[in-house]
Amino acid sequence: MRIREMTINDYEEVYRLWASAGITLKKSDEREEIEKMLKRNPNTCLVGEKDGKIIAAVMGGFDGRRGYIHHLAVQPSLQGQGYGGQLLKELERRFTQMGVKKVHLFVVDTNKEVIGFYEKNGYIQRDELIPMSKTLLDEI
Ligand SMILES: CC(C)(COP(=O)(O)OP(=O)(O)OC[C@H]1O[C@@H](n2cnc3c(N)ncnc32)[C@H](O)[C@@H]1OP(=O)(O)O)[C@@H](O)C(=O)NCCC(=O)NCCS
Gene3D superfamilies recorded for this chain (predicted)? Predict the structure, then answer.
């Protein structure tokens, strides 16, 4: 798998990949929103390609304090072959180079089976934290 930075030209292919991998997609995943994400985080939104086709994708965002990992996904027929781990490692390497000390991610509770993958990659569950959110503009 060849890993490179995601561009907005990848949008349709990446969106299809996310949908096929069961990622919950919302208004915040529409083209203009992803374009904003890529502009702010050009080095940490990545795709993995095999034979010219995108088989894995992830978005990393850095807010100046913590890194956040969004929508890590591998094409379903190629899962369990190490590609997700490779893409995650490359994102972590880039975050580390930027001086990011800690990264967070959210797992939806209907997708608990993915927790084992993250634990194998060194992530720990934070039972003492309760996520809270507030919508400031239209629901996205
Ligand atoms: C989660 C996901 C990205 C992992 O990518 P992948 O390519 O399938 O995973 P890898 O092959 O790199 O797995 C790496 C390790 O995690 C382990 N692993 C993978 N899934 C696991 C699971 N459900 N439970 C326990 N371990 C798991 C593998 O055994 C492997 O360990 P090993 O190297 O010791 O054998 C991929 O399965 C996926 O796209 N899932 C659907 C989308 C999704 O839920 N994304 C996460 C959003 S938070």
Answer: 3.40.630.30
Count other Cβ atoms within 10 Å, centred on residue 109: 6
Rg over CA atoms, the chain: 15
Q: Distance from the CA of 80 to the center of ligand 1, in angstroms?
A: 6
Q: Note whether residue 129 is domain-resident.
A: no
Pairwise CA distance, residues 58 & 73, whole Å: 7
Query: Of the residues 103, 114, 121, which should be mutated to test ligand 1's pocket, given the most ligand atoms within 8 Å of the CB?
Result: 114
For the stretch 46-67, pLDDT in tens is 999 999 999 999 999 999 999 9
Average pLDDT over residues 128-136: 96
Number of folded domains that form the chain = 1
| Ligand 1 pocket member 76 (CB < 6 A) | no
Domain membership of residue 54 (yes or no) is: yes
**If DSSP codes are grouped into helix, strand and coil, which group holds residue 45?**
strand
- Helices (H) and strands (E) in the chain — how many of each? 4, 5
